Amino acid sequence: xxxxxxxxxxxxxxxxxxxxxxxxxxxxxxxxxxxxxxxxxxxxxxxxxxxxxxxxxxxxxxxxxxxxxxxxxxxxxxxxxxxxxxxxxxxxxxxxxxxxxxxxxxxxxxxxxxxxxxxxxxxxxxxxxxxxxxxxxxxxxxxxxxxxxxxxxxxxxxxxxxxxxxxxxxxxxxxxxxxxxxxxxxxxxxxxxxxxxxxxxxxxxxxxxxxxxxxxxxxxxxxxxxxxxxxxxxxxxxxxxxxxxxxxxxxxxxxxxxxxxxxxxxxxxxxxxxxxxxxxxxxxxxxxxxxxxxxxxxxxxxxxxxxxxxxxxxxxxxxxxxxxxxxxxxxxxxxxxxxxxxxxxxxxxxxxxxxxxxxxxxxxxxxxxxxxxxxxxxxxxxxxxxxxxxxxxxxxxxxxxxxxxxxxxxxxxxxxxxxxxxxxxxxxxxxxxxxxxxxxxxxxxxxxxxxxxxxxxxxxxxxx
Length: 464
Ligand code: SAH
Ligand code: SF4
Ligand code: F3S
Known about the structure:
- The protein is built from 14 helices and 21 strands.
- By secondary structure, the chain is α/β, with parallel strands linked by helices.
- It has four domains: 2-160, Methylthiotransferase, N-terminal domain (Rossmann fold), CATH 3.40.50; 171-283, Transcription Regulator spoIIAA (2-Layer Sandwich), CATH 3.30.750.210; 284-403, Transcription Regulator spoIIAA (2-Layer Sandwich); 408-463, CATH 2.40.50.140.
- The strands form six sheets. Strands 3-2-4-5-6-7 form a six-stranded parallel beta sheet, sandwiched between helices.
- FE3-S4 cluster (F3S) is lined by residues 36-37, 39-40, 73-75, 107, 191-192, 195-196.
């Protein structure tokens, strides 16, 4: 494990300088399409940062781009299908202008069978690479400009971290900060460990410097990213913990929030819960993926915790911060999930009363152990369970949102609502949406609002 060497990064900087010289004065544009989770959003900001360094202007119009990049996701079949349809759509750009460069990267192309598919069936794609080769984009673009052979990078699991890449942040007040990459957990349904390699943590000083810099620039909402942030630091020399990191961030002056994405229950320590609930920056929201309320299913998922342990964490968190907004992830229709197993999930949801849940229908992923399990659940049952889960959760969410009415809360203004001129969308520190009416634009600022009304998916309030 380690970091990409200075020599290797310098090599990429040389490519950047060469491309700059080649495209100087030609007003070339680049378009990056992002699918998937925040980790991919963060990666795309780096792709865009590098493209800008090369001299490209970032555009949001794909039809005017000279470079088209698709940053793909492989978490569920639907994500891959979307990626393939977008890549398919790009074919006609290449047909009308053979100088256009098309690259595909991210989790989908980190799988060998998808890489082969791009190579053999998508002849207009110039190059693909996996998540570990992000920093080599300049080299791939340089070769494509010079009409070198099409290139399909096989170095899927480069277990290294590249520091110092330019980041083209998409927001002026919300930022992603990756604190670690990869995953060691191998939940049996999940593709992530295969496409993002083993866990590796960034040095605490690098993370702290990035957060300090963001706060100085006025960022208000910072999400610390990692597939399991609770195992942060285990691979570093001084073995700092996620609690140490939160405590250090707490000391940074400024008015800002911190979110953690994501915490694995098996590694949730008392020390971490203490740090989270002590700091006003972190205590508003906690996302703790449950996946299933049945111990048998959890065991087959290789989650390595029981519902009893999970509930103890929730209890401890609520004891420390009764107001904490709790969210979770649930998978329905995991192989072998019986009606009883599913009812246990429903019971647990009712017991915990999450503010919101992200529910997913189990999707078979090639190469994962769950894909080989015999008792796959029919699509019909999966959908029935999914609908039932949503219905139960909607009732809980409605009830929980009603409890907010009359309260005064601090929100961060996200921007104008698409449908209504004077309506702004804002968010609480617990990530609850609050719509407000305002003549003035407070986008990117904290304001206080009084909640006047609530429904299942949103709150409504007025600025005070
Ligand atoms: N590392 C994070 C999750 C990343 S993926 C964690 O462990 O919490 C986000 C969510 O997608 C997971 O929590 C899980 O609920 C869901 N998911 C992952 N693989 C899936 C699959 N094969 N089918 C359906 N949902 C899946
Ligand atoms: Fe996937 Fe499990 Fe790793 Fe999360 S912890 S990324 S669900 S393998
Ligand atoms: Fe994220 Fe999708 Fe990859 S959820 S880690 S972009 S498989």
